[in-house]
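Limitations
The structure tokens in this dataset are predictions for the assembled complex, not deposited experimental models. Users should treat interface geometry with appropriate caution, especially where small molecules or nucleic acid strands are included. An illustrative entry is reproduced here so readers can see what is and is not provided.
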Amino acid sequence: MIKKSFSFLLAILFLSSILGEFLWAKVYIDIRSPSFRKFPIAISPFKTPIFSNEEMKLGERATQILTDDLSISGFFALIDPRTFVENTVRALPRGSSSAAGQAPAARASESIDYRRWANIGAEALVLGEVSYKDRSLILEARLYDVVKKELIVGRLYKGEITDLPRMVHRFADEIIFALTGEHGFFLTKIVYVSKATGNKEIYLMDYDGRNVTQVTRHQSICLSPRFSADGTKIVFTSYKAGNPDLYLRDLRSGEERRLSHYPGLNISPAWSPDGQKIAITLSKDGNPEIYTIRPDGAGLLRLTDHPAIDVSPAWSPDGKKIAFVSNRGGNPQIYIMEADGKNVQRLTFEGNYNTHPAWSPRGDRLAFDSLIEGNHNICTIRPEGSDFRILTANLERCETPSWSPDGRHLAFSSTRQGGPHIFLMDAEGTRIKRLTFQKGGDTYPSWSPRFKE
Amino acid sequence: MRRKSSFWLVVLMAIVAVAFLAAGCAKKQVIKEEAEAKPVVEAKKEEPKPEPPKVVEKPKPEPKPEAAPPEKPKEEVKVAEVKPEVKPEVEAPKPEAAPPEKPKEEVKVAEVKPEVKPEVEAPKPEAAPPEKPKEEVKVAEVKPEVKPEVKPEVKPVEKPEPIDLAALRIQFAFDDYNLSSKAKENLEKIASWMSKNPAVKIQIEGHACEIGTNEYNLALGERRANSAKRYLEGLGVSSAKISTISYGEERPLDPGHTEESRSKNRRDEFVQTK
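Predicted assembly:
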């Protein structure tokens, strides 16, 4: 009898050692919980050991970027840094330098006064240090559990001075992963259309609005940029050759080539999630219809066959369905069909003018642009057609929504502060933040996927 | 007793092993489904209809397609270069072979008019060769040959009547591409002008107001342009003389945001082309 129960115990231990990873990890932020509260975290301003003017600016910048990242994520209540007792002593004791990415030892834990941080309500703490030596930038950052009084994750990054935002974003991603189990999106980018030069051209920026660069110089009209599934290329429409044609551009090499230039329209591209096909609208057969084409320009396949206008395809994240806009019912509405064109079903029934569908990477909702009482609003709906919600009822004309890779945020264009300009908001329509400040009007944001590095 | 305990241990290990196997099988199934899906898609590739032969452009990589469309801008460039050469040649012999490119010059007005007028008015306008459309492109090459041919042919110059195409733009209702009766009137005027001037060609630009996405409006603009084109064809204008393009909401006539401004932007514009 004793032996029997003993062997049972052995078996249970054996099983739980396999499952232990999932059962025993501490869950800091349960983002699936409907009533989760914001997690209080304190970001101590990044220290700069040498206190040169340049280094201090880098430290401030790093702190600001990290603060913005965690604030945008929506998971955190950031403790006001003014409640910190100013501590001029270096928080990170010097240790041996290590190659980028290796986690430093937890030796620093003992020298941190956790009680002080706990007293101001923080449950987690970020300490960081930036130094710039011999034209090499070193950023070291650590996340501590104030309650358990231990290090959660620490990183050391080495690079050039221009790598500062990327290093901070990477650490922000580490924080998110350590505390929520999900991957962050702080290294992602947004591509959009801007008339800053007087012509509509394609621009690229970090997801938080920093690092704006001009991508095209067609001096014509460029429209509808969309990222490839791996984030390295964009596809867009341009009138450069006198007709709306589709172009493909590699963002890393700058190589650009024409993808499709049939007579008539070559517009509204959407890259499939597996990267194998691009859904487009062509009117070469007499009517705007949706087709798919391979990125090399071959393999044209027609999907829709209806005398109405069929335009603006958007793939589901599993690549099995395509949402699109059609006025086959008399006015523009959103429809969903299988990826081979079969089984067309109407999705939207509210309002008379629903366009620009965008399928959340979580698969659970679609965002789109709905004309309500003469005003453009961003709305979301479930793929079954239920739970129609208006997100932006109080803002000026809001259009062209694009989801973040984690499906919790939307980039969109709005005229609420002139422009239009690109804004960010969460999937409930709150926490709105402006991203672009150029003259001339910015529209049609498209959010990149997470980059594989 | 010993047998029983070891027996239970073996049972438990077997359960764990089965669980792992099941997980592995599930993965394999998913991969299988994806593999099956692919050949189905590829088989369908054969369906899409062949493109009409007149469409030179095929979706091949760079060299070929880029050869076809740039013809238009090239032509325009050629004309500009040729004009200065034309003058001396024309003045030496009789200006009968005067540059007959009248219809062209309506477009290149800025450069040509001051130079052309004196030449044309001095001699008789009779001897202008009627081969106006052809010389549009081959002026440089043709000119020396044309002159001796032209002299014997004395035909009346067919100066195209001036027409203000811009004023004949037609308007549309919101999200609509049907032609109003006023639109049809304008189109009838254009058709009649084109039949009196068989050399002219036009491009119909379709436009839309800012409401709605750029993409939908590009399609709507194209619909509007095609509406007008079909009506003109119905009135006897050859489709080879009409090209269309859609600008969607990209080129508004009135940049304002009131309904009055927007209604002005729902239109087709007519532009003479070469």
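Some entries come with short summary sentences. For this one: Chain B has three domains: 17-48, 71-150, 166-273.
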